[in-house]
Amino acid sequence: MIIDDINESSNKRLKRKVRILLILFVIGLVVSGLTAFPLVWEVKILNQTIGSGTFIEKIFPPMASWITRVHDSLLDVSAHHPFIMYGTDWLAFGHIVIAIVFLGAIRDPVKNIWVIEFGMIACVLVVPTAIICGQIRGIPFFWRLIDCSFGVIGILPLWLAHRYIKKMGDT
Asked: How far apart are CA 79 and CA 92, in angstroms?
């Protein structure tokens, strides 16, 4: 009976940790998705901060040049081909929908461990997608590494949550 109480208490702590990790992951997904809507405005600020003509140009000229190129291209696309920006709206939508899937895992992590596994697989797939598609699309290597970091950082809370869920199942 005492062992059962200890196991139950341990499981409650683990479940709380899992929920916190998943909530943080969901917040990251939603925020990342929402930032796709005001993309032109955000890149304008980014360009003013670290684009060509800023201090970054002296430190890391390729970064400053890339940011300015992206800024100028977004201005052109939004002015002359605004329907293409619809793709970033769908990007935002995709992030939010994926975040919604994680609500089931927050509610019942053991039953919905597959959601965490799905998320971990998606995080792993970010890396080859960024490397391969980025090369095809002419994205500079340093920027592809930034894109890869989303998968690398994202997998950490999911891996830890997965580990805790497995412990919960063992007790």
From this structure: 21
Calpha distance 167→34 (Å, rounded) = 34
| DSSP one-letter code for 171 | -
Give the max Cα distance, the chain.
71
CB atoms within 10 A of CB 148: 17
Among 79, 53, 74, smallest CA distance to 64 is for 53
Q: Per the confidence metrics, is the pTM higher than 0.70? A: yes
Look up residue 103 and give its amino acid. L
Amino acid in the structure at residue 80: H
CA–CA distance, 102 with 58 (Å, rounded to integer): 43
Q: Go through 112-130 and write b for each residue having 16 or more CB atoms within 10 A of its CB, e for each that does not.
A: bbebbebbbeebeebbeeb
Domain boundary assignment for the chain = 18-170
| 105 in Cβ contact with 15 (< 8 Å) | no
- Alpha helix positions (H), 81-140: 86-107, 113-137
- Closest to 73 in 3D by CA, of 60, 87, 62, 84: 84
Q: What is the pLDDT of residues 4-18, one digit of tens each?
A: 555 677 889 999 999
